[in-house]
Amino acid sequence: MVKGRQGERVRLYVRGTILGYKRSKSNQYPNTSLIQIEGVNSKEEVAWYQGKKMAYIYKAKVKQDGTHYRCIWGKVIRPHGNSGVVRAKFKSNLPPKSMGARVRVFMYPSNI
Amino acid sequence: MAPKRRTSRVTRNPELIRGVRKHSRSQMYHKRGLWAIKAKNGGKFPHHEKKAAVAEAVAEKVSKFYPADDVKKPLSNNRKHKPTKLRASITPGTVLIILTGRFKGKRVVFLKQLSSGLLLVTGPFKINGVPIRRVNQAYVIATSTKVDISEVNADKFDDKYFAKQVEKKKKKGESEFFEAEKEDKSSLPVEKKDDQKAVDAALVKAIEGVPDLKVYLGARFSLKSGMKPHELVF
């Protein structure tokens, strides 16, 4: 994010919610997270999003690289179930406090 | 002469048991008729003339120095990368939406693909502030809008044009130290500004010919509430 630029804010990502980790009834596998992407409601619609990068952005008290914001990058891997939920893998596993939090699903790497 | 397809050779020497054939070497010599081939050729087998032996290389001066351990030669790598395959939707003159970086959301005109695989793109600068720039295909959405690009000459642009300027290192004298640092690196050389103007001149004319295209290129793309990219037709 370029500082000091007032320009218009463009949203070039789709909003997503982190639902939790991939899991069975009593075991969870934190290396894969489940993401609900806004507006995606079926397995077929997920095909467009496969491979797209996503970022979990959070704030921290200490400044790193000149900013309080930090980011974990990941990507959409495959659909999860029939209703548009998506499995995602991140560079490092998402922290448990991120459940219910926002994730940005970008439109790149693009194939259109 | 192209090699002729021969009928596959069949041995006249049946196998009795695995590893044991019926006829001996001299019997096979007779069976194959090699004696007749020899007779036809005047007592010896027909053969290709040997190519003239390469003149002995001048004896190299034997070096007194050998490395202590055997130095491994790295394997030679002759692979040449092809430029990234251009998507069918991207043709010269297509309007692209840049997804990432400083100019994200900007609609931009595609000029050509460079040999590195990157796309050469221009705003035009006057319309939306995007200079002649390189962009990666993966970070771009191609729209179906096309601009007539026939008047534009993009031949002089290649990857070397965009290489970073290497500043010659000056010997650091104490007095010069602080002054030399002040040279402004940020101003663009005039030739680049002129190149931009040259490319844009023809392009802007073509754009103004189409109603609303100028405003379209000046506006940025953004996702709004309720917009689903997987359902959008670009």
UniProtKB/TrEMBL annotation, chain A:
Report what the protein is called: 60S ribosomal protein L35a-1
What molecular function terms (GO) are annotated for this protein? mRNA binding; structural constituent of ribosome
Q: Which SUPFAM superfamilies match?
A: Translation proteins
Provide GO CC annotations from the record: ribonucleoprotein complex; ribosome
InterPro entries in the record: Ribosomal_eL33 (IPR001780), Ribosomal_eL33_CS (IPR018266), Ribosomal_eL33_sf (IPR038661), Transl_B-barrel_sf (IPR009000)
Origin organism is: Forsythia ovata
Signal peptide span = none
Instruction: For this UniProt record, give its keywords in alphabetical order, as a comma-separated list.
Output: Ribonucleoprotein, Ribosomal protein
What Pfam families does UniProt report for this protein, alphabetically? Ribosomal_L35Ae
UniProtKB/TrEMBL annotation, chain B:
Its Gene Ontology cellular component terms are:
ribonucleoprotein complex; ribosome
Q: Does the keyword Transcription apply?
A: no
**Membrane-crossing residue ranges in chain numbering:** none
Q: Which UniProt keywords apply?
A: Ribonucleoprotein, Ribosomal protein
Q: Do you know which CDD domains this protein is assigned to?
A: KOW_RPL6
What Pfam families does the record point to? Ribosomal_L6e, Ribosomal_L6e_N
List each copy of the Large ribosomal subunit protein uL6 N-terminal domain by range.
Answer: 3-52
- PROSITE patterns xref list: RIBOSOMAL_L6E (PS01170)
Record-stated family: Belongs to the eukaryotic ribosomal protein eL6 family.
What name has this protein been given in UniProt? 60S ribosomal protein L6
